Amino acid sequence: MEHTGLNQTDDGETVLLCYPHLQGSCPRLNRLPVVQLTMYFFISTMILMTVCGNLLVIISISHFRQLHGPTNFIILSLALADCCLGCFVMPFTMVKNVEGCWYFGQFFCQFHSSLDMMLCAVSILHLCLISVDRYFAICEPLQYRTKITTFKVIILVVIVWLYSFAFSFGLMFSGANSVGFEEFILLNSCAGSCLLLFNTEWGIIAPLVSFFIPGGVMSCLYIKIFHVARKHAKVMSDRVATVTCSDLKNQASEQRERKAAKTLAVVMGGFLLCWMSFFLILVIDPFINFTTPVEVFDTFFWIGYFNSTCNPIIYAFFYPHFRKAFKIILSKTCGIKMAKNIVLSL
Questions:
Q1: pLDDT tens-digit map of 261-290
Q2: Does this UniProt record's set of keywords contain Amino-acid biosynthesis (predicted)?
Q3: Which of 93, 105, 247, 331 sits in a 20 to 30 Å window from 56, CA-based?
Q4: What gap in Å lies between CA 108 and CA 99, rounded to an integer?
């Protein structure tokens, strides 16, 4: 008898299965084909925008010497994390959410969950580094060049990646996140499932370490930055009557730093807004016996992922240097394609 992927329940209702040839298979989501195609189209577009947008940031900073600097090297690493998320995490999550099945094996389920957690931790810690960088640039400008050097930034970026890797993969592959919930996981797992569960302890520790503490540090630093920037603006307005050439240069430099701080504050604010709901649910879920609907988890996951799509758009909108770099790269790419088409047509 040929397997059709269907199963009959006791009530006579037809159920689609993830693995019809396996006993104990998870049921597939019974969505209309038009709904599935629509979901695939919109999510694929979001993934493509994430990858292409962050590649533009990576190429811009790598190619143009004017963009070489401590802050932009952190942004380069942040864009790399977002690009990796778009390439190696989001496509598999898309299939899982649209089909309602995990087709990629249990080992890759753990690897995927670990990589997802790692890239999220990398992003928030990079934003934390950026806030520290902006703090010294605005609040202690005379010490900025000595305290924040490219070499120090590269060392810190490497530490962030290594720490995030060790924390995320160590937690998931050691099974520490699910200690005490082995029976619950056994009862709720089936062929085609990929459960990401945290017990009460790690449900608090993981979000605290990877999101809430760095987020609190960033918020405090940016409050201090804007307080100092406002004070500088007031001082400059009081001295407007006796402005010298040197003062004008300092004022222009301070304005650039303030604008950069505002831009990066928008990036930080976008990250916190996008991921806040997911991390709150992650903390609450163990206390309500994991009764949060899967659809709610999936929705907050994609809102978080959307932040990686938005970052390059924020840079292009607020940062003139990035906007110019994007235009040059895109115009050159279009020019090369046109030249190739002309050659092929001859």
A1: 676 677 777 878 888 888 888 888 878 877
A2: no
A3: 93
A4: 17
